[in-house]
Amino acid sequence: MTDFRVDADWVLAADGPIADGSVVVTNGAISWVGLTECAPLAERTETVHGVLAPGLIDAHTHLGLSWARALGPIEGHPVYDLFWPLEQSLTPDLVDAFAAASAAEALLSGTTCVADHYFFAEASVAATTRVGIRSVVGETIVVTEAPHSGPDSMPNAVAVAERLGGLDLVHPVLAPHALDTVGDEVMREIIAEAERLDVPVHLHVAQSEREIATLMERSGVGPVERLHDLGLFERRVVAAHCMYASAEGLALLAAADTVAAIYCPTVHAHLGRTLRAAELRAAGGNVGLGTDAVPMQRRDLGAEVRAASALQAVLTEDADALPIAVAMEMATVVNAEALGLGGVTGAIEVGLRADLVAHRTDRAVAAPFADPAALVAMSGPDLVDRVWVDGRLVVADGELVRADQRAVVAAANTARAELFERAGR
Ligand SMILES: [Zn+2]
Predict the structure, then answer these.
(1) Which of 77, 296, 329, 333 is the most buried (most CB within 10 A)?
(2) Long-range contacts (CB closer than 8 Å, 24 or more residues apart) made by 162-167
(3) What is the average pLDDT score of the chain?
């Protein structure tokens, strides 16, 4: 790949904002960062009238769940009463269409990497590859209760992880649904396979009262305590939710260097139970940020950054519990580290891959502004102008470059009609 240089009004570099700054990209990696007046020449130069910032990293998604978008009022628990009954009728082609829409939405909102957890993961990878977003991806492993469950789920997911290893922009993981639906024996096998493959484990932890009740009945302790006893915390763990963790469970999370609890502010708020993210951070825990998926939500991690800060202030009755700047760190460098991508992405720094977002400043929502970092924390699809993933341009002038957004939307609509027909709804 040829070298190029991006000159911007502002560059949000790892060690601080640079006014009139430049980033040089060589073979998809950031090779130079500094003042434009000192920048080396490149074969091509792009100019950003705005702020060049690192792409956001979404640490917990279900891209293929975009079929549940904007369904209107739902009854019962979204996972047990809506998602599972319909997900039984999913096919790889349907997941591909839903995941493409969701991946496109993420890119257009300034997210350059998603950690995805769903059925038919290779179909999601086909979609993420087509639109050009980086993914940390695992096939959902589930042994009982949920759709597509059974004894083949674990070996199938391991085979998927082996096939995905080495693919461009794809970082495989093992993705058990949760301990209550997988069980101790299979969880032990997953831990051993994660060690053999040297990949993280991405799962749901303490996400519902039902899960807690099952674990208490089965083991006499909550899921965090049981996963710790099984040896999971010796691996790198992406632990979505944790909002029903006990005090003992939260203490174990706070003490575990290799484990990150993933806070999904909008989803938690809609479920009426929120991870005490600011307190877990203050106690020494790793806490990342994700969108997850509920019907009335956008796959826009910037919106979750602002929600995280606001909701933790209310929860703790402390306006400074989780400042916006800290929530932005969670959405970038903390999430990169949580996913095992600390040396790959998450910041504008020499040696990292060029996952970059140009935010425009010529819109009413961006005027006036004083602090470029604060402006980026207020950004979203209306300000995202250009996106590069691994040095490749994937969004230009607020539109997808490698896929046709209208075709992606049409395919998702057709797929939803087919899913509901298959499910007899
Ligand atoms: Zn989830």
Answers:
(1) 333
(2) 162/197, 163/122, 164/121, 164/122, 164/125, 164/137, 165/197, 167/125, 167/129
(3) 96
- Taking the centre of ligand 1 as the mean of its atom positions, its distance from the CA of residue 294, in whole angstroms, is 9
Whole-model pTM over 0.85: yes
What domains lie within the chain, and their CATH numbers? Answer: 4-53+354-399 (2.30.40.10), 56-338 (3.20.20.140)
pLDDT tens digit sequence for 237-251 = 999 999 999 999 999
* Dist. CA 345 → ligand 1 center (Å): 23
Centre of ligand 1 to C-alpha 61, Å, is 6
- Distance (angstroms) between ligand 1 centre and the Cα of 158 equals 20
Buried-state track 241-250, b at ≥16 Cβ within 10 A, e below 16: bbbbbbeebb
- Ligand 1 geometric centre to CA of 76 (Å): 17
Mean pLDDT of 358-366: 95
In this prediction, residue 2 has a pLDDT band, given cuts at 50, 70 and 90, of: low
- Bridge partners (DSSP) of residue 24 are 5, 32
Taking the centre of ligand 1 as the mean of its atom positions, its distance from the CA of residue 117, in whole angstroms, is: 7
What is the whole-number distance in angstroms between the Cα of residue 203 and the centre of ligand 1?
A: 8
Q: In angstroms, what is the span from residue 373 Cα to ligand 1's centroid?
A: 29
Give me the DSSP letters along 334-377. IHHHHTT-TTTSSS--TTSB--EEEEE--SGGG-S-S-HHHHHH
